[in-house]
Write a structure and sequence with these properties.
257 residues, alpha/beta, five-stranded mixed barrel, 7 helices, 37% helix
Length: 257
């Protein structure tokens, strides 16, 4: 990693299930509470790290990312969690690593173009290519070598995890839980290359851009962002999301140590 500081990893998830197991895997963990959030500091597979739950939504995620940098002095941020598919080629059980992120509910027209974040000149915030490449490789290794060992045959069949793939591309974030084909259709008209939708990543991207912090966003596809999304989402998060995040982060950290 390229940093003048000693590397300290900041790991963010929105929900406790998405980060389950990581805190327990820490060596010498200790907890600090700040801004109504619990930050757990320690070593993860030989790396200095801070784990925290952002809660749901762009403001909550932005505040969490800023605190990680300003108070806890992390040098790199990775956001893990789940997302809805926004593309027919992206299936439940697949992983999407962001090449860039857009706030799909940002619309300051006619003052600024749709999606552009005012006074930044950007509508899409590019992720750090080196860091994103590292987590992509870790995700690919997990799917190729760990997935069938981590999950039972019944779970693989139930959630259609066989043949899972890793994608890189555009992720959209907004303060909306996308749960209808009509909503998704309108977004795809405006953003044809959109691969996944969620509620936090682009806010973290803006904070990291403004503070000069390398970041990556990795999302496991939990649902198809349609009328069945709420049911699919909760079932998937409880059963599949945390093992995905745990093993991908583990493989990534082991490579860094």
């Amino acid at each position: 990693m390229n940093s003048s500081k000693k590397p300290r990893l900041g790991l963010i998830s929105a929900l406790v299930e998405e980060q389950e197991g990581l805190v327990e895997a820490m060596e010498g963990p200790y907890k600090l509470t700040h801004g109504m959030r619990d930050f757990t500091l320690g070593k993860l597979w030989g790396n200095d790290a801070v784990c925290v739950l952002s809660r749901i939504g762009k403001v909550a995620a932005a505040m969490t990312a800023a605190m990680l940098v300003e108070k806890f002095e992390v040098t790199h941020i990775v956001f893990t969690g789940v997302a809805g598919s926004a593309d027919f080629g992206v299936r439940v059980g697949d992983i999407v690593v962001a090449e860039s992120l857009v706030q799909h509910d940002m619309d300051a027209r006619p003052l600024f173009p749709r999606f552009e974040v005012p006074l930044t000149g950007l509508s899409r915030f590019p992720s750090d290519q080196a860091l994103s490449g590292q987590v992509t490789a870790a995700a690919q290794d997990f799917i190729a070598n760990d997935l069938e060992n981590v999950f039972s045959t019944a779970t693989v069949k139930q959630f259609g995890l066989a043949g899972a793939r890793v994608h890189r591309g555009l992720i959209g974030s907004g303060d909306q839980f996308i749960h209808s084909r009509a909503q998704l259709g309108l977004l795809k008209e405006a953003l044809p290359d959109l691969l996944a939708v969620e509620m936090e990543g682009a806010a973290v991207a803006q904070v990291c851009f403004e503070l000069g912090i390398p970041y990556a966003v990795i999302r496991t596809i939990s649902d198809n962002a349609n009328e069945g999304a709420a049911v699919d989402f909760m079932r998937f998060v409880r059963t599949v999301a945390s093992p995905y995040a745990f093993h991908v982060v583990k493989r990534w950290c082991e490579r860094l140590a």
